[in-house]
Amino acid sequence: MSDPFAPGFLERPYWWEAAPPPPPGSLPLPDAADAVIIGAGIAGLTTAIELGRNGVRALVLDREAIGWGASSRNGGALSGAGSLGKSRSDLVEAFGKDFVAELMEEGEQAFEDFEGFVAREGLECDYVRCGRFVGAHAPAALDGLKRRIDLINAAGGEEAFFVPRDRVGEEIATDRYFGGMLLRRAGSLHPAKYVRSLAAAAERLGATLMGGVEMRGYRREADGGFVVETSRGVLRTRRLMIATNGYTGGATPWHRRRLIPVASYMIATEELGEERVRQVMPQLRVYGDTKKVLYYFRPSPDHRRILFGGRASFVNADLRASGTTLHRYLTHLIPELRGVRVSHSWKGNVAFAFDMMPHLGEHEGVHYAMACNGSGVVTMTHLGTATARQMLGSANKPSAFARLPFPTRPLYTGHPWFLPVVGLSYQLKDRLDGWRVPKDAA
């Protein structure tokens, strides 16, 4: 297809049609706050909610509009421990059997807690527990999937199942996968509606949210508090938390050195109608696969479109180029969609840690929650809540993720110059496994 774009094509998130980020306000910056949170995405807003429930009024600052970043741009696919270690088959070797079991149990419990959190706060976000299918892109990936199934089931009951190749068609209309994994404990939501509802809940509980305010630095006082310098002035706080994830900048160099920001790209198709969507995704789940250059995709909440994402580029690509690439990937995976056009194309920054694990903790008095590694909705909701409890000193049991070391690499400053090389190696690995995407697939 020479032109994959529909009339009226937009270079902006599809999610923003229903829930655009609010324009930055003009509130004056206060002189002081009980707690200051930098970053108004899922982690920061969830932290503010838990603090508010315990009588601490947080001030949440963001350089952009509230919820502008990846929190309102992601695929809206949710799972528990099934997302942990998805790029590592050696979790037990790296961390030890007992500790991995603890991480997995916490990850599975995080999903259950998430469902309770949505209900308790009355969050309007189109949430549904729909399950997730992960396709094996090559025969060699099947053993790794089976190990993940065993690890997940050991943590929380029979919630993961192997799908043989002759039954893949029950999940998705493709012959590209050699089998797969079905996760029952998984779901979907509308991410921009979720962030909007989190913001409203935080404000109800006493938080002040200010977009368009950039933190430019901070220093610790002798009494243990902080002076925070911003683009709108200076304020003081007893508690400081960083929740900037894939948008972490030079004001917090310790955190930046431990994060690898990666642009993730998405497209939405034009309206297809629910019947056609069900033809290619009969169970209306969320979907992913085992490739190094992975795909993630799902129906829209109204089941009338398909949303498709992946690493369309390991350099900064314009949204028409990335949209063309993702359209090619989609129609190669599901040939029945050839001829379907793209209505929206967008991107957002996710953050990976060098150990591919989520992290929360405290460094020199500053709390943090970051490194969702591409699976952020449940993870960041859980990390934000756990961080608030850590800040309050009220956690009955510290999070296992707070006990993980947060590694960096010598000479790394937060600029991932190596991503193009990594991307080429990932593409080569997928091709050696037998995965091919013809350039004329669309």
Describe the overall structure:
- GO terms for molecular function: oxidoreductase activity.
- The protein is α/β, with parallel strands linked by helices.
- It has a single domain, classed as FAD/NAD(P)-binding domain, CATH 3.50.50.60.
- It contains 10 helices and 19 strands.
- The strands form 3 sheets. It has a 9-stranded mixed sheet with strand order 1-17-13-16-15-14-5-7-6, sandwiched between helices. Strands 2, 3, 9, 10, 11, 12, 18 and 19 form an 8-stranded mixed sheet that branches.
- The mean pLDDT is 93.
Count of distinct structural domains: 1
Strand count, sense and barrel status of the largest sheet are: 9 strands, mixed
Strand order of the largest sheet: 1-17-13-16-15-14-5-7-6
SS-derived structural category:
alpha/beta
- Helix % is 25-40%
Draw up the topology in text.
Elements: E1 5-10, E2 32-38, H1 42-53, E3 58-62, E4 77-79, H2 91-95, H3 97-121, E5 132-135, H4 141-156, E6 160-164, E7 179-183, E8 186-188, H5 191-204, E9 208-211, E10 215-220, E11 226-230, E12 233-242, H6 253-256, E13 260-269, H7 274-280, E14 286-289, E15 295-299, E16 306-310, H8 319-333, E17 342-352, E18 359-363, E19 366-370, H9 377-392, H10 419-432
Parallel strand pairs: 1-17, 2-3, 2-12, 3-9, 5-14, 12-19
Antiparallel strand pairs: 4-8, 5-7, 6-7, 10-11, 11-12, 13-16, 13-17, 14-15, 15-16, 18-19
Keywords:
442 residues; alpha/beta; FAD/NAD(P)-binding domain; 9-stranded mixed β-sheet; 8-stranded mixed β-sheet; 19 strands; 29% helix; globular
A few lines on this structure:
By secondary structure, the chain is of the alpha/beta class. The chain has helices at residues 42-53, 91-95, 97-121, 141-156, 191-204, 253-256, 274-280, 319-333, 377-392, 419-432, and strands at residues 5-10, 32-38, 58-62, 77-79, 132-135, 160-164, 179-183, 186-188, 208-211, 215-220, 226-230, 233-242, 260-269, 286-289, 295-299, 306-310, 342-352, 359-363, 366-370.
